[in-house]
Design a protein that fits this description.
Adenylosuccinate Synthetase, Chain A, domain 1; 2 domains; alpha/beta; 10-stranded mixed sheet; 17% strand; 16 helices
């Protein structure tokens, strides 16, 4: 759907040239009602209040949107929601080595599914990224935990958590996370293994991250400024420092001096002197002593675990559309959050990897700069953000919000070969009289068959939408698929039909129990 700037302005929406974001004509009216209700119900502090919209809120969409009334008329098999032993059977049928990966631009809710699945696996492993990941999970008492480096399986007492060689580790943050878990009654002793091959992320990397973003000015990437990119840069240009180097404090100062000197020569704003080096070395001597019990040859451990027929669950950070190769480059992360990163980030063979579950929101969000074809701008995007509480776990930054992008989702499914999807936050859409799906791209009337690499081409894209009816009732207490409103089932089944991958898990709230097995 392509609206002129003038029509966008009249709706209270804005057009965005970098992503050719398709402003949606229905958003202004239906979200205006939502805003009034939000002011009454304190929307900022609530995950999703249900607001009943009057029939007058229904909007006739423009010609580029195709109604999908035919979907409701289809003869489809009734899928009865699974519970109890049948749901358990589905989980236990997952492959010996399975993975949970993000399909979009991150923040899909991967941590919750990992937490739920973890009790059925012996090991939960992180394979890439660093503390830029922010996974929010809740324990059985409803207590909230925000994890950044520690795998989300940590709340399950029988699970061993592995931080693999592909992860970059900021030790002050890592110890702070462990201290926070321990103070809340979560035992970490003997349960977290850190790869001796993993690279260390220093405070200097965080400083450099900020300096580089400032240099880029208006073309900045929008990173978390957690030093992830600079740490991976050190790794790739081969002057990085690994966890195993902490065992050799005789050579550690020289290696750290090389890193600090390099940063100082590159950035005028980076002040480095002998005193800084002495302080850092002394600090890392203490860190080395504390980290020693965690340090493990995780490549050997992972392969021994697999040979012993134990079950492994891999937890991805970020998501495919942020992949350094497959994402919206350069507006991406610095690692490989797609399927290939599992093998390189843990040292396990491709043939060992089985089922991969893709986690996708019922709509789309992204943080930072970069293309976002289905973004809803203005008040519409703001109110969807508040309804879904779309603020970053790691940075607190507001997330950009838009309709579900089927083109990007199909692309992600192709790259990763997902055996199933976890559709999250379906409850957030419950207030809407109509819901749109971005089903196709075109440029000057010519279809674009897949998600393009060319940012200039992305700027010219017009999104074709399908419109489905909303269900306009609270679904947060539903636990069986067959009990969902027919319109909600329609939405789920249309996504399955378009991407060719079944939806096995449906999130309808933040808690552990707020999950439907389909």
């Amino acid at each position: 759907m392509n609206l002129s700037s003038s029509s966008c302005s009249s709706l209270g929406l804005e057009s965005n040239p970098i992503s050719s974001r398709a402003a949606v004509s229905s958003a202004a009216v239906l979200f205006a009602n939502h805003k009034r209700a939000a002011n009454v119900n304190g929307l900022l502090g609530v995950r999703k209040p249900f607001v009943k919209f009057p029939a007058s809120s229904a909007i006739t969409c423009s010609a580029s949107s195709k109604p999908v009334g035919a979907v409701a008329e289809k003869d489809q098999k009734k899928v009865v929601g699974e519970s109890g032993s049948s749901a358990l059977g589905r989980i236990e049928s997952l492959s010996q080595v399975s993975g949970v990966l993000g399909c979009q631009w991150g923040d899909e809710g991967k941590g919750k599914l990992v937490d739920i699945l973890a009790k059925h696996f012996d090991v939960v492993a992180r394979c890439q990224g660093g503390a830029n990941a922010g996974h929010t999970i809740y324990n059985s008492e409803g207590k909230k935990f925000a994890l950044h480096l520690v795998p989300s399986g940590i709340l399950n007492e029988e699970t061993t958590c592995v931080i693999g060689n592909g992860v970059v580790i900021h030790l002050p943050g890592f110890f702070k996370e462990i201290d926070g878990l321990e103070s809340n009654g979560v035992s970490c002793e003997g349960r977290i293994l850190v790869s001796d091959r993993a690279h260390l992320l220093f405070d200097l990397h965080q400083i450099v991250d900020g300096l580089r973003e400032a240099e880029l000015a208006k073309s900045f990437i929008g990173t978390t400024r957690r030093g992830i990119g600079p740490a991976y840069s050190s790794k790739v240009i081969r002057n990085g420092i690994r966890v195993s180097d902490l065992r050799h404090m005789d050579t550690f100062p020289q290696k750290l001096d090389l890193l600090l000197s390099d940063a100082a020569s590159r950035f005028q704003g980076f002040n480095y002197g002998p005193e800084m080096l002495r302080e850092e070395v002394e600090k890392y001597k203490r860190y080395a002593e504390r980290l020693e019990p965690y340090i493990t040859d995780t490549v050997h451990f992972m392969n021994e675990t697999i040979s012993q027929q134990k079950k492994v669950l891999v937890e991805g950070g970020q998501a495919t559309m942020l992949d350094i190769d497959f994402g919206t480059y350069p507006f991406v992360t610095s690692s490989s959050p797609s399927a290939g990163g599992i093998c390189t980030g843990l040292g396990i063979a491709p043939k060992a990897v089985g089922d991969l579950i893709g986690v996708v929101k019922a709509y789309t969000t992204r943080v930072g700069s970069g293309p976002f074809p289905t973004e809803i701008l203005g008040k519409g995007g703001d109110l969807l953000r508040f309804a879904g509480q779309e603020f970053g776990t790691t940075t607190g930054r507001p997330r950009r919000c838009g309709w579900l992008d089927i083109v990007a989702l199909k692309y992600s499914c192709q790259i990763n070969g997902f055996s199933a999807l976890n559709l999250t936050k379906l409850d957030v859409l419950s207030d809407l009289p109509e819901i749109q799906l971005g089903v196709a791209y075109q440029v000057d009337g010519t279809p674009v068959k897949s998600f393009p690499a060319d940012l200039r081409l992305l700027e010219q894209i017009k999104v074709e939408y399908e419109v489905l009816p909303g269900w306009q009732c609270d679904i947060s207490s539903v636990r069986n698929y067959s009990d969902l409103p027919r319109a909600a089932q329609q939405y789920v089944e249309r996504i399955e039909e378009l991407v060719g991958v079944p939806v096995h898990y449906i999130g309808i709230g933040p808690g552990r129990d707020a999950l439907i097995y389909k």
